[in-house]
Amino acid sequence: MSEAFLAVKEIHKSFNGQKAVNGISFTIDKGEIFGLLGPNGAGKTTVIRILSTVLEADAGDVTVGGYSLRKNPAAVRNLVGVCPQDLALYEELSALDNLIFFGQLEGLSGREAKSQAISHLSLMGLTERGKGKISKFSGGMKRRINLAIALMGNPKLLFLDEPTVGIDPQSRNNIFETIRSLRDKGMTVLYTTHYMEEADRLCDRIAIMDGGKFVAMDTPQGLKRQIGDPDKVTLEDVFLKLTGRSLRD
Amino acid sequence: MKRALIIALREVRTYLKDKADLAFSLLLPVATFALIYGAFGGTGLFHGTAYIVNEDTNGIYAEKLVEKIGQEQSLDVELLSRQDAENKLDRSDLNIVLLIPSGFSDKLISDQPGELTFLQRGNGGQEGQIVASIIRGVVSGLNQEFTVLDQSNQLLTGKDIAPEKIAFTTQKFLEKEQQSPLIEVKETAIGSKPNMVNQFLPGIITMYVLFAINVGTTAIVEERRKGTLERLLTTHLSLGELFFGKFMASALRGFIQTFILLALSYAVFRIFTPISFLECLLIALLFTMACSTLGLVIASVSRTQDSATWIGVTFTMAMTMFGGTFFTISKGTALYALSKLSINTYANDAFKAIITEGGHISDLGVEIGVIAGVAIVGLVVSRLLFKAVPRGK
């Protein structure tokens, strides 16, 4: 029987009286890639912010690896790595310096941080560019470094908030392969994206979120089956059917 | 604490890697020092220009007067036409001009009193008054010469002595008296020298340290702009550590600049003793720390770089003005009461006490207490006000 590494129970979050997250619950098993899809403003980033301890939920609780987020956020931070949607890098520093800096903040010694940084640069295919300044990197390279930083400290649970936005197919492919290899080593991943075919290829299960709630949660095949023949319909068809075709802010 | 140090070191590393920023911030105190040196350096004695309208063309006493004024070490002479002088006075290009009227020499030759006039705007300005005072001294010396010559002539005329010999001998006595006056005025310096550098350096240092406010404001806002702030908060770094790290980095950066300025002043102007130099450094460090925390308070309430910059600049200007940085505020005035609200007042008083008055840090309990208090309270308040994301950390 699989074991839930992340368990989210009825979390709520409002901003100025407006519900951003409205009582969602889900679990992610150890070594599972869980996709979180939704239109703009659905509440995906707020969920990730709550799970990564940046925001506090108004109600509900989250446990990660058996630790309650509310009671023991420091222990939870030990277990998670976050790759934010926006590139969060120090452009004036080298890739290696960025990785070492964040590694040290994760509690690694200077030597450990450097060793992990070199290993993660290799994983991202950027060994040769380690000493290059981030400001000189292409968009795809920056995205890969953004992900590599999230891996510093070897987290058990990885939050990836649209990690492939605006990059070339080679970089995207590298990121996919990295995520799969991490999953194969037992890492648990929560993945948000707007690219449906990406979620279809990568995720074991997917939740579709709209208006702060889950409107569906299943395997990609299971979701497609809800509206027709899974070999003929796409995940995008499911998404549009469940969230509507009206434009979002 | 270790993570706060990592944050501070990262800031320092970024500072060192940005060559333009590094060069600018290190050259700024050198440039400021060069300006101070240009303005007040050298002897520290007054030097001005005597603007003169000489309408007594070819008058021997007018020429003699101009020549005597020109011999004053602290004055240069610039001759102007009457029209030119009036235009410049009208435009406030000049504040005071000496007018030698036509017939000035003829009157003196015919034993009538001559008259000189100062054309001036208002009281002639501070420099103008000094120039006028020096000119009055020259005129007084000339008066004395005429009186002595006149009396010698009266006493010796008709005693079978050639007038040329009377004039020559009298002139010799006058010159001897000038070289060895009966009453000589000497200067003995007690404590530090009261020169312009001493007067203005405390204000300049205070202003300089205030730049740390702007460094402090940008430190946090930049993290928000880059998107790294939220990422930092997902690590093991606490907000307290983040703030303390930023505080250390901006205080260090501000202090390095102030150190350069003080060290150059120490080496070139020689207005410090080793002890007073170290005391000034200590006050500068404490004041930089206080300013850095004020910068963090501003950063805590600012959402954008622009708002942080504007609040920082407005705050700095208000502190400078209310703090009487470059002028003395009279006791009992409303401005004096307001000045007590400016941290500049305490820093400026502390620097003045050491640089200008030759005091010691042990006499500055109130000033040191206020500055240290601002540093501690500022750090706590900035942390309490700060929200990385709305309703979040």
Observed structural traits:
A: alpha/beta, 6-stranded mixed sheet, 10 strands, B: 393 residues, mainly alpha, abc type-2 transporter like fold, 2 domains, 4-stranded mixed sheet, 6% strand
Please summarize what this structure is.
The complex is a heterodimer of chains A (about 250) and B (about 400). With about 250 residues, chain A is an alpha/beta fold.
Polypeptide structure, described:
Chain A has 249 residues and is α/β, with parallel strands linked by helices. Chain A has helices at residues 44-51, 73-79, 95-105, 110-123, 139-150, 169-184, 196-202, 220-225, 235-243, and strands at 4-15, 18-29, 33-37, 59-64, 67-68, 80-83, 157-161, 188-192, 205-210, 213-218. Chain A has nine helices and ten strands. Chain B has 393 residues and is mainly α. Helix content of chain B is 68%, strand content 6%. Chain B has helices at residues 2-17, 19-40, 60-71, 82-90, 104-109, 125-156, 163-179, 196-226, 228-233, 239-268, 274-301, 305-322, 334-339, 343-355, 365-385, and strands at 48-54, 75-80, 96-100, 117-120. Chain B has a four-stranded mixed sheet. In chain B, α3 links the parallel β1 (48-54) and β2. In chain B, α11 (274-301) packs parallel to α15. The mean pLDDT of chain B is 83. Chain A binds chain B through residues 15, 49, 52-56, 74, 77-78, 80, 82, 84, 86-93, 97, 101-102, 104-107, 149, 153, and chain B through 3, 6-7, 10, 13-14, 17-18, 226-228, 230-237, 388-393.
